[in-house]
């Protein structure tokens, strides 16, 4: 049994029921940020341009693709995480986005600034890592699907 299999086995068998509420809140927070990015697409595009991530290829194309990717990962991933459908997969897919948010925002803005969103990014990053290990939990759509097909 590999280390990843051991982590998956432990996460599947040690899920307190109260953790489901945090998984749902995490999914709703990701959906909320995805909607906020849609409503403020120009701010996201300006931020991506200011970070210098898009210098190597065409700036307008890469900013558009990155912004669309971030929005899609937040919206689709947030809904799937909230419902408990492929939680580990969508946590893994959202991990690079959140690492970028924490380190790019953390390097650009002050952490001690009032109403700084770096704290929300750090909390969501920690929750994403936690649910990457923990998995779906007790009440999940994926668990119901596998129980009805196997039993």
Descriptive account of the structure:
This protein has helices at 3-13, 19-39, 41-51, 59-83, 87-108, 118-134, 141-150. Helix 4 crosses helix 5 (87-108) and helix 5 (87-108) packs antiparallel against helix 6 (118-134). It has one domain (15-150). The model has no long low-confidence stretch (mean pLDDT 81). It is built from seven helices and no strands. 77% of the residues lie in helices and 0% in strands. It is mostly helical and 151 residues long. It is elongated.
* Mean pLDDT level: 81
- Sketch the major β-sheet: none
Helix content: over 70%
Tell me the number of strands.
0
Number of domains: 1
Order of helices and strands: HHHHHHH
* Spans of at least 5 consecutive residues with low confidence: none
Rg computed from alpha carbons, rounded to a whole number of angstroms: 17 Å
Give the termini distance in whole angstroms. 26 Å
Structural class: mainly alpha
Count of helix runs: 7
Beta-strand content estimate = under 5%
Gross morphology: elongated
Features:
151 residues; mainly alpha; 7 helices
Summarize the structure.
The chain is mostly helical and 151 residues long. Helix content is 77%, strand content 0%. It has seven helices and no strands.
Strand-helix topology:
Elements: H1 3-13, H2 19-39, H3 41-51, H4 59-83, H5 87-108, H6 118-134, H7 141-150
Helix pairs in contact: 2-4, 2-6, 3-4, 4-5, 5-6
């Amino acid at each position: 049994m590999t280390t990843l299999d051991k982590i998956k086995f432990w996460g599947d068998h040690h899920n307190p029921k109260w953790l489901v509420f945090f998984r749902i809140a995490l999914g709703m927070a990701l959906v909320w940020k995805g909607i906020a990015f849609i409503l403020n697409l120009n701010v996201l595009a300006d931020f991506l341009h200011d970070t210098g991530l898009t210098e190597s290829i065409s700036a307008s194309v890469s900013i558009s693709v990155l912004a669309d990717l971030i929005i899609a990962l937040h919206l689709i991933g947030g809904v799937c995480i909230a419902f408990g459908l492929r939680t580990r997969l969508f946590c893994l897919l959202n991990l690079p986005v959140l690492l970028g948010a924490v380190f790019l925002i953390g390097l650009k803005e002050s952490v001690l600034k009032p109403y700084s969103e770096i704290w929300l990014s750090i909390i969501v990053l920690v929750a994403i890592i936690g649910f990457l290990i923990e998995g779906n939990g007790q009440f999940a759509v994926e668990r119901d699907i596998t129980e009805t097909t196997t039993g």
